[in-house]
Amino acid sequence: MTMTPEERARRAADAMWTADAASKWLGMSLDEVGPGWARLSFTVEKHHTNGHDICHGGYIFTLADSAFAFACNSYNQRAVAQHNTISFLAPGRLGDRLTAVAREVTLAGRTGVYDATVESQDGTLIAVFRGTSRTVKGTHFDEPDAGG
């Protein structure tokens, strides 16, 4: 039986999540995933804040980067970041629930481009992120050959 693209994305995400100590340590949740996209979130706690008493930009970047990672790995092909940029637009504050949604812009050969937004629970746009991925050898789980 052939797996649907949604099932493949979920299985790949589950396999990645099992080993993703960094995202779990930060307090993220993997909220939803599909072919070429993913949504992750976390609540800003005191240990996420910097000297301005706002969420440290590195944590916001990590949230967007993790959403990007799950989006670009959703085809059960291992993919790594090749280049990422982020623009911070508003601060995340203590107690905010920040959500990153990453979506595929294009996939050409081994290179993918993904855009992500990070928003607070009230819809404030916190940051915009663009990531370029590169597929490498390997898969996240064994998948029967579609023809077999």
Automatic annotation (TrEMBL):
<dbReference type="GO" id="GO:0016289">
    <property type="term" value="F:acyl-CoA hydrolase activity"/>
</dbReference>
<dbReference type="InterPro" id="IPR011973">
    <property type="entry name" value="PaaD"/>
</dbReference>
<dbReference type="InterPro" id="IPR029069">
    <property type="entry name" value="HotDog_dom_sf"/>
</dbReference>
<dbReference type="InterPro" id="IPR052723">
    <property type="entry name" value="Acyl-CoA_thioesterase_PaaI"/>
</dbReference>
<comment type="similarity">
    <text>Belongs to the thioesterase PaaI family.</text>
</comment>
<dbReference type="InterPro" id="IPR006683">
    <property type="entry name" value="Thioestr_dom"/>
</dbReference>
<dbReference type="InterPro" id="IPR003736">
    <property type="entry name" value="PAAI_dom"/>
</dbReference>
<protein>
    <submittedName>
        <fullName>Hydroxyphenylacetyl-CoA thioesterase PaaI</fullName>
        <ecNumber>3.1.2.-</ecNumber>
    </submittedName>
</protein>
<feature type="domain" description="Thioesterase">
    <location>
        <begin position="54"/>
        <end position="126"/>
    </location>
</feature>
<keyword id="KW-0378">Hydrolase</keyword>
<dbReference type="Pfam" id="PF03061">
    <property type="entry name" value="4HBT"/>
</dbReference>
